[in-house]
Design a protein that fits this description.
Elements lengths: L12 H15 L4 H8 L3 H8 L7 H11 L8 H9 L7 H8 L4 E6 L10 H13 L5 H15 L9 E7 H5 L5 H15 L4 E6 L13 E5 L5 E6 L4 E4 L2 H17 L3 H13 L3
């Protein structure tokens, strides 16, 4: 083929994405013009993505999934895009975020920090900047993390809002992050979150002791077809489990956690008391 550029998919995640677009297109027997027509992009744009000269976008990724009928598979172009976009995140988390944005019910349990779905921009920025100072991520990756927090919040206000259940270990609200004003604003947001018609917020107090059913953060999603998936992570890795049979015991343990945790009214009262004690 004249002027066909040889691709090097191992050179970068972006190159791997482009190489996959080309191989999928050629497997269908399509020219770049054919894929352009099916995705709404120009053939020049298709060429630039395939050769790694242009960074793919979320819209392009979803258009590719529709064109290649991969939207309902485990290995979507959107998932691959999220891995490029959020390269500093733990394995499995970018894919989890993609499912989170479509879930009918979201259940979260967190230890030590406020979960990203509920973080204020200022709180998220302090955490990201701290990671930069430790050398864990670059400033660019820090900006991406803060942006991701904003993008995830869109899941709470989409037309068909999900039910969101959150249980916070007491350490989440007592651990100071940033200046007092940052923490005060974060606690204020939690009380506002609890007032939403589609949310439930509870605190798992220290006094629960061994009755707390999880020792690591856990996220459980119920999709529109009632299938379950769970995401859990340690300090070094994350794992997304798309098997409902594996997630069901997690859901049972989550219900047990909710039964032992403080009621929403008592939890909000505890948060408000902490706000009063913040300078």
């Amino acid at each position: 083929m004249v002027n066909r550029k040889e691709l090097q998919p191992d050179s970068s995640p972006q190159a791997a994405f482009g190489a996959r677009v080309r191989s999928s297109r050629e497997a269908h027997g399509w020219k770049q013009e054919d894929l352009a027509e099916r995705t709404g992009y120009s053939s020049t744009h298709i060429s630039a993505v395939e050769t790694g000269r242009k960074v793919p976008t979320l819209r392009f990724s979803r258009s590719a999934d529709l064109a290649f009928s991969t939207s309902d598979t485990a290995d979507t172009f959107e998932r691959q895009w999220r891995e490029i976009r959020n390269g500093s995140l733990l394995e499995g988390f970018p894919e989890y975020v993609g499912h989170e944005g479509r879930a009918a019910e979201i259940r979260l349990f967190e230890i030590g920090i406020i979960p990203g779905l509920l973080q204020t921009p200022e709180y998220a920025s302090v955490l990201a900047e701290s990671a930069v100072k430790r050398g864990a991520i670059t400033p660019e990756q820090a900006s991406e993390r803060v942006q991701l927090v904003a993008e995830r919040k869109a899941a709470l206000v989409r037309p068909r809002r999900p039910l969101v259940f959150v249980v916070l270990d007491e350490s989440c609200i007592r651990r100071p992050i940033g200046e007092p004003g940052v923490m005060e604003a974060q606690l204020a947001y939690l009380t506002q979150f609890a007032e939403l018609p589609n949310t439930v917020l509870q605190v798992a107090p220290f006094t629960m002791g061994a009755r707390r059913t999880f020792n690591l953060p856990i996220y459980i999603l119920t999709m529109s077809d009632r299938s379950l998936m769970s995401y859990a992570e340690s300090a070094q890795r994350g794992h997304l489990d798309r098997e409902s049979t594996s997630a069901l015991p997690m859901l049972t343990a989550y219900h047990q956690l909710q039964a032992e945790a403080l009621s929403q009214a008592t939890s909000v009262a505890m948060i408000e008391q902490l706000r009063k004690g913040t300078p």
